[in-house]
Prior knowledge:
Blueprint: H1 24-46, H2 51-68, E1 83-86, H3 92-102, H4 108-112, H5 142-161, E2 173-177, H6 179-183, H7 185-197, E3 202-208, H8 225-232, E4 235-239, H9 245-256, E5 263-268, H10 291-301, H11 313-319, H12 321-343, H13 345-356, H14 378-389, E6 396-400, H15 404-407, E7 426-428, H16 433-446, E8 450-456, H17 464-472, E9 478-482, H18 500-505, E10 511-513, H19 518-530, E11 536-539, E12 564-567, E13 576-580, H20 584-597, E14 602-606, H21 610-614, H22 618-624, E15 632-635, H23 644-647, E16 652-654, H24 665-671, H25 676-688
Parallel strand pairs: 1-2, 2-3, 3-5, 4-5, 6-7, 6-8, 8-9, 9-11, 10-11, 13-14, 13-15, 15-16
Antiparallel strand pairs: 12-14
Helix pairs in contact: 1-2, 1-3, 1-10, 1-11, 2-3, 2-9, 5-7, 5-16, 7-16, 12-13, 14-19, 16-17, 20-25
Amino acid sequence: MGIGEVGxxxxxxxxxxxxxSPRGADLERLCVDxxxxxxxxxxxxxxxxxxxxxxxxxxxxWVLWQxxxxxxxxxxxxxxxxxxxxxxxxxxxxxxxxxxxxxxDLTLDDIKQFRQxxxxxxxxxxxxxxxxxxxxTGPLGQGxxxxxxxxxxxxxxxxxxxxxxxxxxxxxxYFLASDGDLMEGISHEACSLAGxxxxxxxxxxxxxxxITIDGSTDLAFSDDTAKRFEGYGWHVxxxxxxxxxRAIDAAIGAARATFDRPSLIILRTHIAYGSPHKQDSAxxxxxxxxxxxxxxxxxxxxxxSLEPFELPEAVIAEWRRAKARGARLHAEWxxxxxxxxxxFPDLAAELNRRLAGRLPDGWxxxxxxxxxxxxxxxxxASAKVLNAIAPKLPELVGGSADLTGSNLTQIKGSxxxxxxxxxxxNVHYGVREHAMGAxxxxxxxxxxxxxxxxxxxxxxxxMRPAIRLAxxxxxxxxxxxxxxxxxxxxxxxxxxxxxxxxALRAIPNMTVIRPADATExxxxxxxxxxxxxxxxxxVLTRQKVSVVDRAEHPPAAGLHRGGYVLADAPAGAPQLILxxxxxxxxIALGAHAQLMREGIASRVVSLPCxxxxxxxxAAYRDQVLPPTVTRRIxxxxxxxxxxxxxxxxxxxxxxxxxxxxxxxxxxxxxxxxLTVERVVAEAKALLSGAARSG
Length: 694
């Protein structure tokens, strides 16, 4: 039933005269309970979901959206809006109910379609699916890290663009975390970093309901959360009663007035508040209350109707005051923006460009060029490209998870980002790969900052959940994964990635580029900066690799098509094709030369990006890999799973189906058969029909 179809107060009971409109505390109570009833009804109708947390936190939603959160429901993308991140994404009905009630572009029918095909109200909040949702969350702890990234982005843009009397970047970032969020290691990493950076505009809420899926939090969780966050350097407050709207209001006000450190507000709540039989029970976490329990809960709350999705008009009107408040705040900011634009037109234009994600003209005009005498690790070439780009692309900000000197991620001429140095561009994430991934996502969600983060390829495992969410949300993030194979040598198998390339390639919307040499590294960076629709990983060597002589071979720009013919048989008529990425392209070229000397016509295909190649028209793929040439050998110092599509049933993969070892990399390549001699032998065996796969 729509808003226009209900009376002042909906009720099943007949009345001789319309009831008086609720006012004051009664109206506030009904407004809070509106969130609870919508959450109960939507989960019950969907026959799945998480009603309890939404019911517990309804008072927080009311206070935050009505009195503190600076958002405009009519324009959810207003640049200087406050950000709110629901880290406990399972509590999505709290978000959906609040967004609907405050007047975002979400209807009651959308609420009724909760968790259904094509719905704008999916089972966990998703960026881009629902107006007002700032981040895709669900895997616990991710939203905490996202919020830290957003707060860093705000601090940097404020430092760069604000001028005395013109605070046009001045907003807070809020997150809501559950006990599950705070158990996850990523929250420790992210909140430690936030405290170190003294992010004064970051405000977190901890829903202390003391219930997990398995039962009481006492089963596995006995942390002193307040002391933990105080140890991180946070300002910590307690609200003893999560239904006390005045106490919540006061705590948020105190947090907003604290600028020298981030704030955490611990709310003692009761999951499924108001439910006679399921309040404070694990049963209320991830399942509907049941039709009878919903009825009893509405009665216990004093809700004026037992029908699903029915709301008093007075409640709708009161909630919708947030829409007028948001419009007013937005208009006030717009006035400030117009004044800023008149006084600082160049700064305004630059901020607009960055927020829109437009690349500046000529950003890639001075990229370095490399020749055959410039043999070097692709990580070293990457450092040169990064520092050629950085002066032309000021939004590029990032660093390494404590491996700056190994990943070569330092932007020269810039200092280190710190609590008092927000205009700098080198971020030290610390030994916090998972948090780094989530922070990078926060940069992308916020806008105005293009983030990159570096670590060894082996440690991409530590940040994989954040990488996956970046791909799911189609975020523009750049990863620099160095030490990309057994080529890192003596550090041994604990540090030698084997399965990571295949694992990253398996993620939808993920783009993995493993350049063969310095010239492909230039194009890999160019592709990463231009890429839209998902994250990009540049996978780089520790060891030196030769630079392909582009006077004799096709240009490295072929990388942008994912794969291209690097060396060919006479008349373009190969008997077999050698495919490779990264450092193994050098092996393929060596094998090609040997085969040609022996009268065997081969083709070398550099395939630095399987995703780009797969996206090419079939005609181009067939041109590079003629279907008639079925004898193919793929060479990559990694697990073979990525290659079967390209070599086919008659092909061979020279790779690794085992872990590495500790030794100089030259010895490892020899011992594991990643050699010219091995490839030549496999080629001859393949042509004779006696090939084996390695």
